[in-house]
Amino acid sequence: MDHLCEEIRACQECELARHRTTVVPGEGPEDSDLLFIGEAPGWHEDQQGRPFVGPAGQFLEQLLASIGLRRDEVYIANIVKCRPPQNREPLPAEIQACRRWLDRQVELIKPRMIVTLGRHSLSRYFPDETIGKAHGKPRQLDGVLYYPMYHPAAALHQGSLRHTIEKDMLRISQILAQGQEGPSDADQERQLSLF
Ligand code: URA
Q1: 93 CA to centre of ligand 1 in angstroms
Q2: Which is nearest to 109 in space by CA: 50, 37, 172?
């Protein structure tokens, strides 16, 4: 992973390379069960080279604490590793250029569950789904559980989403525990469809 992060730090694949201060590859234990994937670094992240260290990150830490986890116990990354200027949304070409980095991180970490934060992160895996419908509903694909959640920044700005994201987070331990009991894939699909 260290070697991969070095490669990511040297990336010049898209326009964002010209605007960034620091690349933000991601951080956490390489064998984490849980991988949280946000959108793109913001100002704080661009300054420090670490994901989710601004206000959205503080909220993410509170959410993790609500299920008994510290941020250094999970892997946290973004779909785009460099800050888009003025915090604009990442462009499809930028998301595409960055795709292989996250794919290689997922290959190394082999998480049991990927938590997508926000609609860009959701679309990367499930392009036809909307966050309003998909959030809080786990689904399994190629042996990995995917769990879409609203982005913590959206929940910070929209009071009504705060309760929803808090509730969605609380279900993570429950879903992982169910997985640990080891039902067959078919059983698990059935259970998951109940959510
Ligand atoms: N928002 C994100 O999506 N990622 C970060 O790292 C910080 C804020």
Answers
A1: 19
A2: 37
